[in-house]
User: Fold these one by one.
Assistant:
Number 1:
Amino acid sequence: MFKSRLALAAAGAMVLVMAASETSLAQSSLSQSSNPEHGGRAAPGSSVDPNPVAGTRDTSASRVRGNRRAQVDARARAQAEAAAVDPATIKAEAETLFAATGTQCQITEAKLLGQTSDKTKIYEAACASGPGYIILASTPPQAMDCLVLASSAEQTRARDPNADVGTQCSLPANDNAMAVFTAFAKEAGLPCTVDQGSIIGAKPGGAVVYEIGCVGVDGAQINKGANGWEVADCLELASAGSTCRFTTPQEQAATVKALLAGSDAASCDVSQARYMGRNANGAFYEAACSGAEGVIARLNAENVVQQIYPCATAQQIGGGCKLTTTAPATAPNS
């Protein structure tokens, strides 16, 4: 990846060099067109002798012919370059490279970004669904996810605002991060309205991990594994000491409140909630109830409440309640 980033940065430098060369050539042409010594016309009010000696006239004429030949050659080169960057041709080349990488993408648009110093072409492609890609026509070809590149650039700039972050995706169709996060959340089975999303890392095998924020309820971290999407709710992650940037305690309390609907604890006005863990009997959640005794709820795999344990009598359930200050129940005096 480091080598690729160097190549991409080099490509960006080459594009700038090419642009500078074209600007210089244009300026030179403009200068020559108004310079009598290069066969051009003298500017109004010029002191150039309109009747130069024969030898000078011959030299100027030869320069005119040379300039005309150069212009013809330049037009020929421009036509050749235009043919080389024909959109259909570029799209076909990008599709061939994608096939070689094994990346799933139905290309809707592609453009040639430039070349590396060793003449390796670099393309950007937009896909019918999912993120777009930067494609390096190396051996073998490499495809780099636009969202991953943007996330890396964001982290790099956070450390150094002036850092070179290499080539980034620029096609308008690839400015689609929220659409991608929403689609991935749906594929992963998250039953919520997505309002935020971000790439937060990668699994040891390379699978990209996304954090998904949801409107009013608990969010999650998701990644696509070999057997489908893997989901870790933010409530579960909190129990392991991790945090989610896009989920609030209030949203987690609302989630547990919804889980308690239809149970003996349905009346609990959940002010705080935590995931305690799971065993063969199900998953366990603690809920602190405003103005009432807290509870521990056991849910099955379908998230349906199977049993409610009042905090006063739940000391043996995962160490008891932590969010409720209710004193443990005591045995009556004999």
Number 2:
Amino acid sequence: MFSTFLFKTLLGLQFSPVDPNFYSKNLLLLGKTYLKLQNKKLAAFWLLKAKDYPAHTQEDKQVQAEATQLLTGFSGKN
């Protein structure tokens, strides 16, 4: 659906200096983006952060569950 070029382009954009740890879904989406780019090492890095993010809301719990599920699908090596 989306090309690798698009994902790489979007990763390179800097709209403003934002801390990705501000919001658990940011961590999950970064992990999923790196999975699409087949960079399992960086995907694992961000998915582990999403999984370990303190769950304060129902959405945080859903993010943790999805990150955990995605992490079981690969070894984390490139």
Number 3:
Amino acid sequence: MSFSPVQKLSVGTGIALAVLAIVGLTTFLGIRQMIGSEQAVANTNAAIAKLDRVVTRTLDAENAQRGYISTGAESFLEGLDEAQNDVEYALDSLRTLTEDDPEQRRNLDQLGPLISVRFRDVRAAVATRRRAGRDAAEKLLSSETAVRSRGGAGPIASRMRDEEMRVLGDRMRTMTTTGRSARRLILIGTLFSLVLALIAVQPARPSVARRLTERMSRALLLSPELQITQAESARHAGDRLRRLEQIVHALQVPLSAEEVAQLLLQKGAPPLVASLGVVVQRRGDGYLVLRSLGDAVPGLRDGAMLAADLVAPIAQAEQAAEPVVIESATERAKLFPSLGSFSGTGTSDGAFVAAPLTASDGVHGVLLLAFAAQRTFGDDERAYLATLGRLGGLALARVGS
């Protein structure tokens, strides 16, 4: 069966368009999966942080109990209610974050009652100290099960944390694989469509090609724009994944705290396009600037102690173990009215984010990224910052151990 030049052109063009449509649909699904994976990574990081919060704040309550029993000073009990409220809030958040994981829900069902019993024991020992004295309270204390003992809540929390770390690794690998597959499919599909189009137009007379081109140009106008948008989204997601892989690889060798800070700024910060990047770490009552990149005021330069008028967002991020995100100058002035300037020229006094560098035993530093103007931070960027903070915190924890 022979085909006319117009028929050959139509068939070839139709196949090429079909291939482009398949590539576009598959790429769209891949990008949507990557975005979903980034959100899942953020949820996993949040679950890890909440588990650490449960153990840490329960330990705070135990320390307050021991201090009060030993000295009888009421000041030790000031934070007891706050610690219990923090733990209950963290447990409620964990129930939401683990609702799709039956095994973690079973672990959480065991963890919650143990934590409740532990706080009940803490308050019972405090009441015994008030009523019967130190000796009776210490006797009661010796019979209690501490949070990190074999029969306490600590082992269950550790088991849940290990499972979340495993899930985090699986999701990171899935994101990497999906990104690579999307890039490969875009390239192969585009090349194949180009070859088909070139073959199809060969037998067409110039006049036919000209008429068909004029008729089809309007219909095809949106396809390249859609393809560019999808390719750009895949490229940004792929760049963040590559940088996280590079950071993980670099952290496999021992590094100093300053080298870890340099790695976070040089490899981790560029995708967010900040005008200033700083990594600080607590030293006594203040904060030491480990590394800074950009036009910074003297109080934000390498080796300097953080200026007092710049401490507020850093301290809040460290205390809450959650990022402090400011998206505009108006929000900045409202929440931190006394905050000083990050740069001498005003090029970094718009939006900013202070991301805690966290590990299982707490916060080991803060990453500050500042911007010249206001901007919003999407869910994918927040997930990326949370992962970057987890990697940096684990590395700094190893330095301090």
Number 4:
Amino acid sequence: MLKVEGDTHNLYQQEFLNSTTQRSIPPHILKVKKGVSLILLRNIDPRYDLCNETRLLCRGFFKNMLDVEILTESYAGKRACLPIIKLKTNMNS
């Protein structure tokens, strides 16, 4: 690896960054397959029952979205697209 003085962008190697874990965030890579059940862990849109603990079924993928089917409550059977959400954590956790 080429080192440039004052370059903090490449301070740590990618393998090291990918191996670090914290209790407050999921693993570095989250693998989701078509047809698997998911549970929403964030309130996205309560009007359409896209809130914490809603059960979903993965129907497909787009570049930055998941195509899901709602399995619970009054919106069962309805489809929704969930965006990829970047996770942030406090340095203290």
